[in-house]
Every structure is written in structure tokens, then in C-alpha cells.
UniProtKB/TrEMBL annotation:
InterPro entries: Matrin/U1-C_Znf_C2H2 (IPR000690), Matrin/U1-like-C_Znf_C2H2 (IPR003604), SF3A2 (IPR052092), SF3A2_dom (IPR031781), Znf_C2H2_sf (IPR036236), Znf_C2H2_type (IPR013087)
Molecular function as annotated in GO: nucleic acid binding; zinc ion binding
Protein name: Splicing factor 3A subunit 2
Region (Disordered): 1-22
Major localization class: nucleus
Amino acid sequence: MDFQNRAGGKTGSGGVASAADAGVDRRERLRQLALETIDLQKDPYFMRNHIGTYECKLCLTLHNNEGSYLAHTQGKKHQANLARRAAKEQSEQPFLPAPQKAAIETKKFVKIGRPGYKVTRERDPGSGQQALLFQIDYPEITDGIAPRHRFMSAYEQKIQPPDKRWQYLLFAAEPYETIGFKIPSREVDKSEKFWTMWNKDTKQFFLQVAFKMERLDEQPYY
């Protein structure tokens, strides 16, 4: 664009462009850039009508040439209509059903009764610390199964009225029934004094639970 003889301009240089002229120059540069980078054949809203002009099917506007249409696509009106159309399509999209989870086959075992057990009260002769040693016998345990154990609070079980002075220690191994022991609700010493051992040869499971040092007011009930 020639600004040679505009007011405020120096001889031999371009004149000072007005805001309108700068806007025209900007749109022209955007149009040239769009012509080089945009394939109109892939634009779903670009259409050439029967009289040789171009239409924007989204905004319902007419354009004399491709450059005019491309300049329109960079404008606020076209961009706002694109955003509204995307939001509408998103809201109308049906919810997809949740993918089905892979079915996990649950192993079923025929219970054969309770295992044999032995509980031994222990006391460290030096410190007086108290512990319990559990021995559970599983002679008919299922191949590939290892015994399991966990602690249960008095409020988690539903067999006896909850009593905060007690907790329960459970042992489970298929095909035997799960058994539980009622022990004092004291803090367990999780150092090397707490240990488990599964003897695969004798089919015996051992667990020792030691309590941190404090007075034991009541004896454990089994």
C-alpha cells in the first residue's frame, strides 16, 4: 500500500497510515497467508453458489472471491459461530456406555471345617514384654494357596457387641473356614518381634504378635 503523499509523511518515505488503512493492510496480509495455507475444499462451510459468488454456510454471508471468504473466517463473527456450533454438538452427543469390565472368575472352594491351632502366651524374661505365638495347622490346604491373616477392630465384626478393649486376629486358607482370635486391643510391636512363617512341608503357619510395653489388665480370650 502506497503512503507516499499522506499528511504528516516525509518526502521520500511512506506517510502515516490511519487506523482504517492499517486494518485494511492487516486483513490483506491475513488473506494472503490464508490462501497459502488453507485448503478451501476441506472447509465444510465454504460453498460456491449458482451466480459465481461464495457463501459461508455457518454465518450465512456472501463473498465476491475466495480471499474475501478467507478474511471472513479469521474474523470474530465466524470464530464465535464456530465456538457455538462446537458447544452445541458437544451437548447433543449421546453418552457412551461405560466399558464392560473383564469378568474375573471367582474361585469357589468347598469348606472342610476349621483348622487345628495352638496359642502360646510368651513373656520376654529380660523386659517382661508380652507376646502371643499362633500355630495354625492346614494339612489339606489347596495347592498354590498360602495362609493369610489380618487384624480386625471390635467395631468391624458383627458377632459380639463391640468392646474397644479387644480386637480380632483372623486366619484364612482355602478350603478351611476362617478362624479368629480375640486379643487385647493394644499397640502391636511391628519390629522383628512380629513375624510369620509358612512351613510348606508340615503345612503349619506360625505368627508371633508382640505388644508394646504396658500393663495387660485382661488375659486374651480364644
